[in-house]
Amino acid sequence: MDKKDVLRYLGYKNQVIDESMDDLIDKHMKSLASYSGRIIYKVFDFKVDQDVHVLDTVLTLPGQSVKHMLSQANKLVLFVATLGPEVDQLIHKYSYVSGTDMLILDACASVKIEDVLDQMEEEIQGYKTPRFSPGYGDLPLSVQANIISVLEGRRIGVTVSESSLLLPKKTVTGFIGLSHEPMTVTYKFCDDCLKRTSCDFKICNRE
User: Would 174 disulfide with which of 62, 68, 69, 133, CB 3.0-4.6 Å?
Assistant: First the structure.
């Protein structure tokens, strides 16, 4: 885990942090060191018409964003990764102890799940697009349920609520485009993005 990423999730932008904050971040980064995460990913063929259809599954990925992300790809990787319910429970415990500790631990857990996904990407052969998840661009959260169904996310304890939220909370689903050739695809979906009213650049790295 990189402390700079934790600070970014906490909203810091090059400010100097005091020693007590630095110590708290170190404490909570260490508390998550033993959590390796659980992950499922699988490579699929796809076809494109009005939407992107993941072949041999019930999954359709609607929207212009997905078509753009896969415009130079010939396969895609679906994935689900989670830190598990234990991390949710730890964050919840701190909500009764210290709001500051809870926020820092939550930020550390967000960085930790990204680290898990980075390790997954290192295992995948080929040229890859950036990761893309429901809620990015114009891809709706409602596709979460079908992603979890296709990947049998329940095998690693992942479920989806009626409002399309993932449980445990520190869980991420999405896809990566694959190709035998280098790709130049980037995120350029601000006008259509479902997060346009609350974006803090964690997703798009537009800074």
Answer: 133
State the pLDDT confidence band at 205, using cuts at 50, 70 and 90: very low
Backbone angles phi, psi at 160, to 5 degrees: -130, 135
CB 192 within 8 A of CB 138: yes
Give domain limits for the chain.
3-179
Q: How many CB atoms lie within 10 A of CB 128?
A: 17
Q: Which residues contact 50 (CB under 8 A, 6 or more apart)?
A: 62
> What pTM was computed for the model?
0.86
Topology adopted by domain 3-179: NADH Oxidase (3.40.109)
Which structure tokens are listed for 125? 């052969």
Which two structure tokens, joined as six digits, stand for 78? 């679906």
- % of the chain beyond a pLDDT of 70: 90
**CA–CA dist 92, 66 (Å, integer):** 34
How many C-alpha atoms does 46 have within 13 Å on its Cβ side? Answer: 32
